[in-house]
Amino acid sequence: MTTENPSNDGERRRSDASTDTAYPADVLVSPDWVDARLDRFVDDDPAFRLLEVDVNTAFYDTGHVPGAVRVDWRTDLRSAAAHDILGPAEMESFLGSRGITEDTTVVVYGDNSNWFAAHLYWQLTYYGHPDVRIMDGGREYWMDYEYPTATGPVDPQTVSYGGTLSPPANPGVRAYRDEVREALDTETKLIDVRLHEEFRGEITKPPGSNEGAVRGGHIPGATNVFWAENVRPDGRFKSPADLREVYASYGFAPDDDVIVYCRIGERSSVTWFVLEQLLGYERVRNYDGSWTEWGNMIGVPIEVGD
């Protein structure tokens, strides 16, 4: 658990676990939903595939959901050709290597309340994979409530993805730096989901991270809504009413044009998921270049402090 991950003090018992979710199961599934289908995930059947992607890539070897395939965000979710997300051909190859076809129901989860699971979900939405879902609560919830685990690696048979991901089916979920510059001093609203210390410019990266920026601060006009305001102390997403209240308290509404960002795009993927997929905001874009791009560019405006 990192210093950013919300804690849950006190003894946890399986009987304390909430077995359902208030959100549609085609985007967010409960741990019990996964538990009830473990036989489908354990079978080497491309109809269902479970992926674990953790900030701490060593976690998988200590135990994982049975049938879950390891994803290393450092190598699997970054392009080999550029400092960028996977290109269309790279994504097709990655999915095929995990036994995933265009018809596969993909469920993703990970540590830190699903940071990189949300990032992978966002990438798959960008490219238009038809059926991808997040397991609510992620790795910590599954382990804390003593659901079944396995320790051996899962290596599904490589398949052909079967479809084409070029061009991306949903380019509107992604914001590029030029779009962010054009959004300054307009009605578009920016949400910075990083630590308050990052937002104020006191630090350029969260503790324990290697990749930072030359300058600290935030994009002018951005509002700091810490990513963890989306989740309960146990790591599961807050109720729809509670999440609507969070964003209304900062002045956001479902018809706003919103761009979210963080340091490298993974924490902001959580907020993107909440706003677009759970709350139904009309236009939300994830600026995945985020602070490692903006804070290293020449000639762009930066604000410090609150």
Number of domain modules: 2
Looking at CATH, which topology of the largest domain would you report? Oxidized Rhodanese, domain 1
Distance between the termini: 27 Å
Main pleated sheet: 5 strands, parallel
Measured on Cα atoms, how large is the radius of gyration? 19 Å
Describe the protein in words.
The chain has 306 residues and is of the alpha/beta class. It contains 12 helices and 9 strands. It has a 5-stranded parallel sheet. Strands 7-6-8-9 form a 4-stranded parallel sheet, covered by helices on one side. The chain is globular. The model is unreliable at 1-11 (pLDDT under 50).
Q: Layout of helices and strands, plus pairs?
A:
Layout: E1 28-29, H1 31-35, H2 38-42, E2 48-53, H3 59-62, E3 68-71, H4 73-76, H5 88-97, E4 105-109, H6 111-127, E5 132-135, H7 138-144, H8 177-183, E6 189-192, H9 196-200, E7 223-224, H10 240-249, E8 257-261, H11 266-278, E9 283-286, H12 290-294
Parallel strand pairs: 1-5, 2-3, 2-4, 4-5, 6-7, 6-8, 8-9
Helix pairs in contact: 6-7, 6-11
Salient structural properties:
alpha/beta, 12 helices, four-stranded parallel sheet, five-stranded parallel sheet, 2 domains, 30% helix, single chain, Oxidized Rhodanese, domain 1
Tell me briefly what this model is.
This protein is an alpha/beta fold. It contains twelve helices and nine strands. Strands 1-5-4-2-3 form a five-stranded parallel β-sheet. A four-stranded parallel β-sheet has the order 7-6-8-9, covered by helices on one side.
